Amino acid sequence: xxxxxxxITLEPxxxxxxxxxxxxxxxxxxxxxSSVALKIWNIAAYDANRKARGRVGMKHGxxxxxxxxxxxxxxxxxxMEECLDLLQNALWEANRSNFTPEPLATDRHxxxxxxxxxxxxxxxxGKERTALTLQRVNQSYFRNSLxxxxxHTCCMTGIRIPALLIASHIKPWKASTPAEKTxxxxxxxxxxxxxxxxxxxxxxxxxxxxxxxxxxxxxHSEVNDKWIYEFEGRAxxxxxxxxxxxxxxxYHHKHVFLADAA
Length: 262
Fold this sequence. Notes:
Oligomer: single chain
Order of helices and strands: HHHHHHHEHEHEEHH
Strand order of the largest sheet: 1-2
Shape: elongated
Pfam families: HNH_2 (PF13391)
Largest sheet: 2 strands, antiparallel
Number of strands: 4
Protein name: Restriction endonuclease R.BbrI
Number of helices: 11
GO molecular function, one term: endonuclease activity
Distance between the termini: 40 Å
Keywords: Endonuclease, Hydrolase, Nuclease
Organism: Bifidobacterium erythrocebi
Structural class: mainly alpha
């Protein structure tokens, strides 16, 4: 369960044996970092949202690797909260026990990896704070899934600047069930500008994954034509796995695209 929580919270580059939170958990469990990293990628092999990249787990993982996904699907928030409690306690105990990490790799810039950063301000007794933590964890996992599936590229423009890319929900977050909030099929990887336009219903996609522009909400002008109308009718770049669901597209078209802009 703790390895599962790491997989959900970590960025993919942090899932190897040089990742500090991987090392922290290994220290707590009296295991090697490489064995924890392998367990993470064995768990990743059962993730329907994305294919594990980089390290490949064993061909025949344990039944528990598949079981954790079933538990997560049945009660995402409750199961994730339980996993995070276990992970948080393990990471804190490792730090209290004088955990000494290996030197940072050249692509690591901080002594706080994703999991520690998310959990560092968590107050288990505070339901509001717990709910916020769960939202941050789910959003982190959702973004990581889309970043991998769309190859770190805006599916509309081709922009490849990670800091400008947003994991955009097709069916809005507030209207989605816990399972829908993290489903890659409910997401598009968009640049910040077109993410906002999508959320506000200025643009949408049709069943053939082509860009639609709401003519009632977007007036023609030189600038609007360049940044919005130029993309009308173009097909988005589809992800490697987890193509956008027609069910979510229909919801966005009916309840966002055809509704008044917020």
